[in-house]
Specification:
The chain contains six helices and six strands. A six-stranded mixed beta sheet has the order 3-2-4-1-5-6, with helices on both faces. Helix 2 crosses helix 3. The longest helix has 17 residues.
Length: 166
């Protein structure tokens, strides 16, 4: 199994958005965030295997990032996975991953620090290997089905590096 892990693109400033009185879960991407992530998609498509499933956090900024990622992987089945929300239960995410067939090439779209923790859990590390930049991604592979501690980090790329891949 291969798992592409994507942090949502640049979103509206958290403090400024809080002043609107709306919940953080409704915070959208900025125009710059959408533009930069669109430019990263060619590199993401080049660096990752064909994706046949994308799961996203229900938060607006992740859903919007997922919709952009769909353009790079148009045949992927898309679903919302509530456990990917900011502060979600990583045990539920790993259980979901473990239930997928070994042939799956999945992607998840979520938030930090959760994605760093998820990566550490999948790699069997006590601490996150890195902090994902907004719009950054990593590829973790498994021999067979996904399981905590069984993953191998293939690559971890910043958005700037993804934009340089052609």
């Amino acid at each position: 199994m291969n798992l592409l892990i994507i942090r949502h693109a640049i979103a509206t400033d958290k403090v400024t958005f809080a002043l609107t009185g709306r919940p953080d879960s409704r915070r959208p991407l900025t125009a710059e965030g959408r533009r930069k992530f669109k430019r990263s998609l060619k590199g993401l498509r080049r660096a990752s295997p064909k994706i046949n499933m994308i799961a996203t956090s229900p938060y607006r900024r992740a859903v919007e990032t997922c919709r952009l990622a769909e353009t790079a992987f148009p045949k992927a089945q898309v679903m919302t996975l509530p456990a990917l929300r900011h502060g979600g239960d990583l045990r539920l995410v790993t259980a979901w991953l473990a239930g997928l067939p070994a042939s799956t090439k999945a992607a998840v779209v979520g938030h930090e620090p959760d994605l760093g923790r998820l990566t550490a859990l999948l790699l069997g590390s006590g601490a996150p290997p890195a902090i994902y930049k907004k719009g950054g991604a990593a590829l973790v592979s498994f021999d067979g089905r996904a399981a905590a501690g069984a993953g191998k980090l293939v690559w971890l790329l910043t958005p700037a590096l993804l934009r340089r891949l052609k």
